Amino acid sequence: MEFIKNRLLKQIVVLIIVILVLFLFSSRVSAKTLNQIKSELSAMQSKYETTKNQKSLTEAQKKEVEANIESINADIKKTQGEIKDLNDDIDARNQEIDKMQKEIKNITHYYQVSSSESMYLEYVFNASNFTDFIYRLSVSEQLSEYRKKTINTYQALVEENKAKVSELSEKQVSLENSQEQLNAEAAKLGEQITEYTDGMIDIEDEIKDLQDMINLYETKYKCSGNEDVSSCVNRYNNARTAASRNSSGGSSSSVTAYGSLPSAAGFYRPTATGRMGSVFGLSAWYFNYSVFHYGIDIELSHGTPVYSIADGIVVKTNYRSSCGGNMVFIAHKVNGNSYTSGYFHLSSYNVSVGQTVTKDTLIGYSGGVGSIEYWDGCSTGGHLHLQTATGVYMTDYYTFGVFQSRSFNPTTIVNMPAFHEYFSGR
Fold it and tell me: CA-CA distance, 393 to 402, in Å (whole number)?
């Protein structure tokens, strides 16, 4: 009993230590210097080069496999030609065999005839002339030997044909199996190349985002390399606020910069009308219920006004992304918690990075129609994709992958109707 208590006590102590470590780590994870962000950029660029090299190697492997497939296809074609020639030869041999079968029957008959003296004499002396007589006499004398030789030749032809057909059939089956394996290997390599290509596109976007953010910290906020970026932004904002108060006789003005998120009372719908489409999770019908849907889709007419779901600051925009189209990301602070909302498949947007918005700010118009937004390859029709995540994108974290991992169901903070239900009012 005492052993069990001690063991339980040790487990509790270990659990407390783990919780403390996680707490300390999480409390520091958002505190980054400009140099640390540059290190992340360097690591991401290295990852891009690695992925690029892997893609090149895979493409070379795929070319080699495709060359082997072409060689096998040529061998299969050659084997098929050999089989055709053999079949023609077999047909000719079968005719020869049929002829031999008749000859064997005749020889057998002659053999039976020659075994009887009277029949033998009748066969020999019924010759039409002396030449025929000599021939019949020779045939009769050599009948037994020739009969055996003919039968042996016949059997040899039959066995030779069987062996050749079997050999070529096995060769063709082997080639077809190799062809099938190589085709599967080529398809697999093709999928890997696609994954590498998609990965490179994602990394390229993340590299651009980090480069833009570093440029913003260096040129606008004048952050030093070892300065925490949050402190740097706060210093910038405080300086601007003080300058604004001095110039206006003490009254303050709104500051449109990261780190000074306005507090919002709550969340509102991003559009005044619409219908609840695909929901959060593995329930997007156009993904065949196999790909996770990180937000919700609101079905609406093309060009419907789109608003921010709460007061906040625009932290990022994407122009004509190949998957998502025009995109806007807005950071919010509600009840002391930080969030980021994303608005995808916009036909256009009216806001810029660093701009302060309210729940009534028109940030853009809905799109998603393939015939109009031709650049957006991830849309199935006119709709708005709304995505929400914890933390401030481009401040607490800098990559879209982390934004995805932090995403949660928007309906937990935005009052939306049930699936396929219409709504009116925000």
Answer: 9
Amino acid identity, position 229: V
Interval 186-237: pLDDT, tens:
888 888 887 777 677 677 877 887 888 788 888 888 888 898 877 887 787 7
Q: Which of 27, 24, 21, 32 is nearest to 399 (CA)?
A: 32
0.70 surpassed by pTM: no
Single-letter residue type at 158: V
- Is the CB of residue 303 less than 8 Å from the CB of residue 348? no
Question: Do 332 and 264 touch, CB atoms closer than 8 A?
Answer: yes
Distance of CA 291 to CAs 288, 294, 322, 334, Å? 7, 9, 18, 30
- How is residue 308 annotated by DSSP? -
CB atoms within 10 A of CB 90: 18
Q: How far apart are CA 321 and CA 343, in angstroms?
A: 12
Coil, helix or strand for 107? helix
Residue 285 DSSP one-character state: G
179: tokens are 């062809």
Contact 12, 19 (CB under 8 A): no
Domains of the chain: 2-50+205-247 (no CATH), 53-198 (1.10.287), 263-424 (2.70.70.10)
Enter the DSSP assignment of 410.
G
